[in-house]
Amino acid sequence: MTSAAKIAGVACLAGLMLAAIAGMAARQPTPSNIAETPSRSAPAIASDQLARCRTLTMPDAGCEAAWEAERRRFFRDEKR
């Protein structure tokens, strides 16, 4: 095989790969096509709040309330 044929073969293969990638990218949803994400659940929000509170070194009323709510949730009364 001549060098010109090899170059042409590589160019064709590269073109096919680029076309495949472009086709896959065209099928990806864009942010305007995506429906609104559902609101996050309360445990997920509380988890984020507790993660923020772990890094604080000074007292914070919001963090104390979040930790108390987590304690109540964790140690809930099973008799009910």
UniProtKB/TrEMBL annotation:
Residues 1-25 form the signal peptide. It holds the Pfam family TrbK. InterPro entries: TrbK. Keywords: Signal. The keyword Signal applies. NCBIfam families: other_trbK. This is Entry exclusion protein TrbK-alt. It comes from Sphingobium soli. The gene is trbK-alt.
